[in-house]
Amino acid sequence: MFRTALIAFFIGLCLPLAVPAQEREFGLSSPEFLEETGFLNFLLPRFSLKTGIRVGRQANRGEVVFSTQSGEPIMEGLEEVFYVRFEGGGSERQRHAQRFVDWLFSDVGQRTIEQFSIEGEQVFTTIEPKQSAEPELVFEGDPARGEAFSFANCGRCHVIGQNNRMNGIGSTPSFSLLRGLPDWHERFSTFYVRIPHPSMTQVEDITAPFSPSRPPANHPLRLTQDQLEDILSFVNTLQPADLGAPLIIHQ
Ligand code: HEC
Fold it and tell me: Are 234 and 146 in contact (CB under 8 A)?
């Protein structure tokens, strides 16, 4: 009687179906040669200890896959680049898997990966996650004020829009042309340090006063940081000129 119970107990242990539904677990697949380094034996307990989530090792059906082919690059070493990617899976397991991937890319996870060593030698270097898309630009100035200021002060050299179409100086790029450059925001934010402006431009609290020995040109251009914000907000509203040809402008 007792023996039967014992056998049943052991069979229960072996049957995956016997894993209670609420078990916090997901599966991980990885190339065999990575397994063989002992890396996972090093990594996974550290994750499980923190989170109480068990990571099952699955030859090829894990919710998370370490691979040398596709996914988010995570680390390099052993003359390979390793990637992590998600595969399908039940929602509960998927949630635990997500937690694992987040952990891998966190500072702690990255440090853990780099701590793994064989005979005292670090094996993997983590790969910086890709910069997320361009940072959102925020415009807090007033475009209408920026427009008026630009016509009055920049318009004597630059074509700003239809109103001063004939006034710009031929060799000076129009605002809509500059607006078409991928780094237009950077160029306008710093125009006062870009040739030819420094000799005539002063931005309140940013630039040093004109030196007495080198007086500014006839029409010094003075503006505040708020006015610069207004200009940026205005330029942001301009339709970029698309000339189809690469532009060469003084850096
Ligand atoms: C005296 C004439 C003059 C005035 C006034 C002037 N600019 Fe310019 N600006 C130029 C010239 C010339 C260039 C082209 C420089 C080059 O190609 O190297 C230029 C280039 C620029 C560029 C591109 C710079 C770069 O390095 O990519 C920006 C941005 C710019 N101006 C903004 C302004 C703004 C904003 C104002 C007004 C607040 C203004 N400029 C007033 C003559 C002027």
Answer: yes
